[in-house]
Write a structure and sequence with these properties.
The chain has helices at about 20-30, 55-60, 65-70, 95-100, 110-125, 175-180, 240-245, 250-260, 260-270, 315-335, 340-370, 370-380, 385-395, 400-405, 405-415; strands spanning about 10-15, 35, 50, 75, 80-85, 90-95, 105, 125-130, 135-140, 150-155, 160-170, 190-200, 210-215, 220-225, 230-240, 270-275, 280-285, 290-295, 295-300. The strands form three sheets. Strands 1, 2, 8, 9, 10, 11, 18 and 19 form an eight-stranded mixed sheet that branches. Strands 5, 6, 12, 13, 14, 15, 16 and 17 form an eight-stranded mixed sheet that branches. By secondary structure, it is α+β, with helices and mostly antiparallel strands. The structure holds flavin-adenine dinucleotide. It comes from Candidatus Iainarchaeum sp.
């Protein structure tokens, strides 16, 4: 009887964005045989605001890609401007101690950044990287309805293939077919925002900061202007669908109206829109949800790990990729890829880090949902050196956000 040739790997990673490429690179360097599949061909665009904080940059360095990263077109970022619904503004510079230790932030277009990771994955001898291959569904182990042992995917010619592995990683973003198949859709009601963005040249204003405007009618979503190189800005808006549907307007319409507001009109007078508006949805991190099961794990947006308040997801995704890879290596070495063991080595290890951050973020969410308090905190903090210092350190350690809404701090604000 002819024997069918089988594609068998230690790990299959579905999706080669920041989460998937990072997972694959760490696994490969630990000696594991990886099949990395992506439905697109790199370089490919991804709708994003393009900011890269230390969470991301530290891992780029750890992966030995810093030299290549330095060659990418980018903007150097030294601080963040946040405006509350009544127009109060607070500029928070990155803290000088953090800059001395870790450098500043950068904004880099995703088409360049993701390609850097993808090309690094292509060079890795333990990674078989197949582009234009879309994962359709997981394959379950014989006699099991829950243990995943492979995936079915379509190649560029529409041909269907099966591949097998001890562990399958869902790194396929905010519409992840793997996450949906295991019953944990990344589209989470109440935590989901639709976003649209375009690139503009010659927007007047500072090119060394990220600007986030939590405007009335848009908050808890925000309008952003993020420079990405010397003359280009990434301009966009993200809102909960129920908020813009209530206004009976499309998101693009709201973005155009925002740009035309008196406070921004002058800045866009000579600006030229150089790409079309493109939309993308994203759910942000909330309560703990399962991200490991029998033979599978979820990383990045597939596991809903983007931060609330800012929507930062590149660094958090890469971090989940790194911790998942470490957990999978341990589980494989112990020859036990059961839900219990993957949960222990990945999900529990990850949530040890996430728990204090999520608690910190809850305070920020509380502010976003209480506009008057948000206005008050921003107006008062903007003039208070101690609060700017806390806010500055918060860019490095989000657990400090609870200090901003602590009764002691509130009292100080009232008295200041
Ligand atoms: C408008 C917007 C602005 C944002 N701004 C920022 C920001 O400034 N900074 C920041 O840090 N984060 C930002 N984020 C969040 C960030 O973009 C995401 O958190 C990040 O891209 C998550 O990385 P990922 O690898 O999990 O997913 P993705 O980047 O979405 O990568 C998933 C990959 O999987 C592939 N894929 C999808 N389906 C399949 C399939 N069936 N088979 C095979 N491959 C598949 C895709 O082609 C893609 O390459 C923003 C998000 C949005 C929507």
């Amino acid at each position: 009887m002819p024997v069918q040739k089988m594609d068998v790997f230690d790990v299959i990673v579905s999706g080669a964005g920041p989460a998937g490429a990072t997972t694959a690179l760490f696994l490969a360097r630990a000696g594991k045989k990886v099949l990395l599949l992506d439905k697109e061909k790199f370089p490919r665009d991804k709708i994003c605001a393009d900011n890269k904080t230390w969470k991301c940059l530290d891992i780029v360095k750890e992966l030995g890609l810093w030299k290549q990263f330095q060659k990418l077109p980018k903007a150097e970022i030294y601080g963040v401007l946040v405006a509350s619904p009544n127009g109060s503004e607070m500029y928070t510079p990155l803290h000088e101690k953090d800059i001395a230790e870790r450098g500043h932030w950068y904004n880099v277009k995703r088409i360049h950044f993701d390609n850097l990771l993808a090309q690094a994955a292509k060079k890795e001898k333990n990674i078989t990287f197949k582009e234009k291959c879309a994962v359709v569904k997981p394959i379950y182990a014989v006699h099991s309805k829950t243990h995943i042992s492979g995936v079915t995917y379509h190649d560029a010619k529409g041909k269907t293939h099966d591949a097998w592995a001890r562990v399958v990683v869902g790194a396929d973003g905010s519409q992840s077919p793997i996450a949906k198949a295991v019953g944990h859709s990344p589209v989470v009601k109440g935590r989901y925002a639709t976003n649209t963005r375009a690139y503009f040249e010659n927007v007047k204003g500072p090119m060394d900061r990220c600007e986030l405007y939590y405007l009335k009618g848009i908050c808890p979503g925000y309008f952003w202007i993020f420079p990405v190189d010397k003359k280009t800005c990434n301009v966009g808006i993200g809102m909960r669908p129920e908020d813009f549907e209530r206004q009976k307007k499309s998101l693009e319409q709201i973005l155009r109206e925002t740009i035309a507001l008196p406070q921004f009109k002058g800045r866009f007078k000579k600006a030229k829109q150089v790409t079309a508006f493109k939309e993308w949805g994203l759910s942000v991190l909330g309560k703990r949800r399962p991200c490991a099961g029998n033979g599978w794990v979820l990383v990045g947006d597939a596991g809903t790990f983007a931060m609330t308040f800012s929507g930062e997801g590149v660094g958090p995704s890469m971090r989940t990729g790194k911790i998942a890879a470490q957990g999978i290596v341990r589980a494989l070495n112990e020859n036990d890829v059961s839900a219990r063991n993957l949960k222990k080595h990945y999900e529990d290890a990850l949530w040890k880090i996430l728990n204090p951050e999520v608690k910190g973020f809850r305070w920020l969410e509380f502010l976003l949902l209480n506009e008057r308090l948000f206005d008050f905190v921003i107006a008062k903090s903007a003039k208070n050196k101690e609060l700017i210092e806390i806010s500055s350190r918060m860019q490095h350690d989000y657990t400090l956000s609870k200090k901003l809404v602590h009764p002691k701090t509130a009292l100080k604000m009232l008295l200041s």
